[in-house]
Amino acid sequence: MFIHPQFDPVALKLGPLAxxxxxxxxxxxxxxxxxxxxxxxxxxxxxxxTYSDIDDLLFYCVIGVVLGGRLGYVLFYKFADYAASPLxxxxxxxxxxxxxxxxLGVLVAMVVFALRRGKRWLVVTDFIAPLVPPxxxxxxxxxxxxxxxxxxxxxxxxxxxxxxxxxxSRHPSQLYECALExxxxxxxxxxxxxxxxxxxxxxxxFLTGYGSMRFLVExxxxxxxxxxxxxxxxxxxxxxxxxxxxxxLAMLYWAHQRKPAAA
Length: 263
Fold this sequence. Notes:
Oligomer: single chain
Mean pLDDT: 89
Number of helices: 9
């Protein structure tokens, strides 16, 4: 059993400016995506991506993640609260971001990017999918630093006590997600996308992989107190992940049935 050290959520202070660990994790995720994207474009010139494309793609992703993540949290998790106080939607410093909302935001951003650059939407999503997991890993590590989104009680030897919550030993579910979504999913997608694949296959594998891993980890994660468990004794995260898995499997089947141009 380990005691969470209760890190200061502020990583660095520069006068009146406070740089928070969670914001820093977002920054590291975007930087990792930029570096990996440029590396992938250099190693796979057949994909037809330039550094300028990748720089612009990152800008669109930032907008999609921030707006989608916030709106997703408002709509999926606390709609009634925010409906009663609409201006609090803009209080992002109080926390409240949803991966599934951020994911939808990025999908919309990719549509806009694809239209402006004259690229197929699935070609864009296939390129960006292997670049996403490091950012997910950094984000979950930020959750652990902030001692938030903790796990359910357990007696496993690596359990962690979060003093800001209670004295119970709990699953470090943030670290499980960091390892699965940030490391395992990245290795899987990077290996899979190293060779030409049917258009849509890489995107399908991302949806299937992330949705499955998130669904499993949710069994060790404490449900949101304001929601609890929903139908089927599943959490909101699990219900939002199921459509991703189904869509991913359908995309993989569709891509390998069609087998048009490889990407």
